[in-house]
Specification:
Two copies of one chain form a homodimer.
Chain A: H1 31-72, E1 103-116, E2 120-127, E3 130-137, H2 145-152, E4 159-168, E5 181-192, H3 202-205, H4 225-230, H5 232-235, H6 239-261, E6 265-266, E7 272-273, E8 285-288, E9 291-295, H7 300-308, E10 313-321, E11 334-343, H8 349-369, H9 371-380, E12 396-399, H10 400-409, H11 422-436, E13 440-444, E14 467-472, E15 475-482, H12 487-496, H13 505-512, E16 518-524, H14 525-533
Parallel strand pairs in A: 3-5, 6-10, 12-13
Antiparallel strand pairs in A: 1-2, 1-4, 2-3, 4-5, 7-9, 8-9, 10-11, 11-16, 13-14, 14-15, 15-16
Helix pairs in contact in A: 6-8, 6-9, 6-14, 12-13
């Protein structure tokens, strides 16, 4: 039963007490110092006594544990704070024929447990995206019938600590991700059981979305999105979701990596605002001591102020809040904004081109570094490969006017195209994919009337603005523009949109104090994730999504 | 006047229009295709016409610009969207004798402007933490008296685009950070002026905090913190603040770097909560459509649920909200939490040791990679060097009981030490620094009564908990613990603290569904920054700080 693996942590040589702060070097002895030392020696003596006693207790307990485990395959003590043998846990993904014959220790969930008569139990042990088959076999003096029964009765999703010998599998095990070895168990402890009925199994939650109940698989129950979200903790355990959230973290990481390489600095701007900013209608109000505050709809104002404060190039990753009573597949009341803002030297296309470079970096990074995770998600959510243009021709860019022309050519009446609504956006996405073979493109030069007050108008045609949207699969994922850095023009544009400049005084002041020309954009993290993977609902791209009807879990 | 520098961006060969989407490869021609092509050709013809016209306009405008600039040194057009010559801007920090005789283009703020008679103006041009001296000298047919007057009148903090020849300085220029060269200006454009009076100068805001008005420097006005925060955009332009926020970003970056190396994954948990969590008293209430929501005091519940969802090791960087009506030097109503949570194999000290490794990584990283920024801040905020223990002895750790003993030995009555209040924490910091020569230490094993309901009690002494606080300079910067992963014990501990388990059902459910033993901690980003640098007030470590009395700017 000795563990042949080298321990990651050395076994604790000292009794597992908090290391004493005494015994440290101190300066020249004085009377009070000597008194203190005597005290300390007394303390040390007592500590040693206690430690010896503790060691004895530990030894007894360890012995008892072993008995308990080998006799009853029982439950581990709730908290292991008094002993620390330092035995290495082997990740399930690392189990391979190389370890044949070795004893390993694995912490995993019981995905399935099935008795074969009264002499054997098959267990499927799952650890995140990996799983292995384990066998517990009746053995004189080692594994009793009672143990077999106990193991067969382990509830699905229980967490166990399993000790076993790695054995090459006689034939590939299709029910596990580790197919070439199985574990022959020598010990099994319960770390955490379930106190409630499982709302659905992780296996069911991981099935391909299009699969319907069939005669061959009468047991299968399709798990609806609402059921999943109500029991998100179980839903998140699927192989698919483990991959989805690795990809989510990956997007954030690629975003930062690119921008830090371009001289951007990360900032954190306050979400609590003194005034309802940007557009009064869709802001959450907060009780703030005896007054009130509002939740930021984006870091727009703060990041522009950071530019007025000479930060030159800033980015922020943080929550943004939208009080829109909209329950579509692509709206949430809280999501993660990937925002950036930068000073412009000559032309706002400097910003647009940097943003394009950023997206290409993210797309390439996802495909190169997360191919396994993308494949995993595809199994549950079959999707067309996400396409973008590489090479010297560069990303497809066209103007709002040209976008309208494309839609008109496709049969949409021009008089319905003062703005491009969600439906026509999607239509445009299909037109573009058919014509240019890309799912990623940029629309530039939006009409001024469609953009917020802080958008810079074109210097030659003030009905048009220096602004752009980026699209993935026909849905907007970034909105950005050159901003107005001139306080007088900014105040004028506020008035035109019915905003009293007095209500945004601290923001306006930033530009009165001198600010370079600048521009930027804001990306919805969950939207990028949803559209890249075709998850079809943004809630699947959020750990614990929030919408007008959902504040829990 | 030609720029001898290689251009970063190639000059735009095409007219600066939005690239046309037409002309792309399309599949086999059909009747409608041919019709379309004719249309496209017509479009292309028109575009070419427009482009030619545009090029002419641009040329006229560029010529006008040059005239304008050389004649009047005037204001640049507000937005440069129609021309993009692609001339490189040289960062002020890169100006050096190597460039002697070369013409460069610099965008910078006018920190000071002083006429020397009617024939010369000295300008101090500042760019973030760097500055250079520039001269404008009367020259027949090139620089008129009117220009000299205009430049001498430029308001402090105006942003200019300056073209000039780099010249070796005859003697070191003490008033600038670039001391060995000066710029002899050939052109000067105003990019952004001021529409308001400057509340204080950036020079004054950058002076050492202890400096008082003296007879030698009768002009100097000490800028009070409130004045700074009311005009944060100007205050942030100081060399000190530019460094402070590079350090803030640095801490976040080191935090992520260490944890990603340890297999942690970044998560984003919702700030909008359905219930007032953790402790009802200090939670902000939000109007949520027809109901209400609450702002998360920390990602505590969500990150534990992520562990129950098999994420194993998670971290989050995000805002946390505290509705405490407290206006101390170390409290804000919103700050950035650096949070982590991880599964435990054997002992909660696995978490404590990982957190210790994390802090050492951050301290070492700050000292090694940000030495220049730390020095910059020290000039305004003189501080004792932050000390921590390196080498085999490791970080100083002691138990809460031992901390109490240290205070009792120092003269604090034991009966006042059921808890260690802020004052005694600071006292302990001084004792520890005197005795152990460190500003960084860990206190372990807090009494259960002092910790939140989700804290795991010690298995042998339930009055004590498996929890710890980390300290810098006698102030708490991290609080953490092993958490209760057993639903029954968790519910029991809720009841003991007067919380109805029903009110936290989705959280409790996570543990009913099986959860591994786990622990973690939460770090206040601004506190770490404040204490490392001894900024003395946490507001200085926040871009736009929020407290009960401040919601703006």
């Amino acid at each position: 039963m000795a563990d042949p693996q080298p321990s990651q942590q050395p076994p604790s040589q000292d009794p597992p007490q908090v290391p004493a702060a005494d015994g440290e070097a101190s300066k020249g002895p004085s009377k009070s110092e000597l008194k203190k030392r005597a005290k300390e020696e007394e303390k040390a003596r007592k500590a040693a006594e206690k430690a010896a006693k503790q060691a004895e207790l530990d030894a007894q307990k360890a012995a008892a544990d072993v008995d308990f485990a080998t006799e009853f395959y029982g439950k581990l003590p709730l908290n292991q704070s008094q002993s620390r043998p330092g035995r290495k846990r082997t990740p399930v993904a690392c189990l391979s024929p190389d370890l044949d014959g070795q004893t390993v220790l694995v912490r995993a969930r019981v995905q399935a447990s099935r008795a074969q008569g009264s002499k054997m139990v098959f267990l499927n042990l799952r650890q995140r995206s990996d799983s292995v088959q384990a066998l517990l076999i009746l053995a004189q003096g080692k594994v009793s019938k009672q143990m077999i029964k106990w193991a067969a009765g382990l509830q699905t999703e229980s967490i166990v600590l399993a000790e076993g010998v790695v054995k090459k599998a006689p034939e590939p095990i299709n029910s596990a991700t580790v197919q070439d070895v199985e574990l022959h168990l020598t010990q099994l402890h319960l770390i955490s059981g379930l106190d409630t009925k499982l709302p659905f199994t992780v296996e069911d939650a991981n099935r391909p979305e299009q699969t319907q109940q069939t005669e061959e698989d009468p047991e299968y129950k399709r798990v609806l999105l609402d059921t999943r979200l109500n029991n998100r903790v179980v839903d998140l355990r699927t192989e698919t979701n483990q991959a989805v959230f690795k990809l989510q973290a990956g997007i954030g990481s690629l975003f930062r990596e690119f921008l830090e390489g371009q001289g951007f600095i990360e900032i954190h701007s306050p979400k609590l605002q003194g005034a309802a900013t940007e557009s009064g209608a869709s802001v959450f109000e907060v009780s703030y001591f005896k007054g009130k505050a509002f939740l930021a709809q984006s870091p727009q104002l703060a990041k522009q102020m950071a530019i007025a404060a000479d930060f030159e190039r800033v980015y922020e990753i943080g929550p943004v809040f939208r009080a829109e009573n909209s329950n579509t597949h692509r709206h949430m009341t809280e999501f993660i904004g990937l925002d950036l803002e930068m000073a412009i030297e000559e032309h706002y296309h400097e910003v647009m081109e940097l943003l394009d470079g950023l997206f290409l970096h993210m797309f390439r990074g996802l495909r190169q570094r997360y191919a396994k995770e993308i494949d995993t998600v595809r199994k549950q959510f079959p999707a067309d490969e996400f396409k973008w243009r590489e090479g010297p021709e560069g990303t497809l860019k066209f103007s709002f006017k040209q976008a309208v022309d494309l839609l008109v050519d496709d049969g949409v009446p021009r008089e319905k195209l003062d703005d491009i609504d969600t439906e026509n956006e999607k239509r445009l996405g299909r037109i573009v994919r058919a014509k240019y073979d890309t799912d990623y493109y940029i629309i530039d030069k939006f009409p001024m009337a469609l953009r917020p007050f802080y958008t810079m108008p074109d210097s030659e045609d003030p009905t048009v603005s220096n602004s752009y949207d980026f699209f993935m699969r026909g849905e907007e994922i970034l909105s950005g523009a050159q901003r107005v850095h001139d306080a007088a023009l900014l105040a004028e544009q506020m008035r035109q949109k019915g905003i009293n400049p007095e209500s945004m005084k601290p923001y306006l002041q930033a530009f009165q104090l001198g600010c370079p020309p600048h521009g930027g954009g804001g990306i919805g993290l969950e939207r990028v994730l949803m559209l890249f993977l075709e998850l079809n609902n943004i809630r699947r791209a959020s750990l614990f999504p929030r919408d007008p009807k959902r504040l829990e879990p």
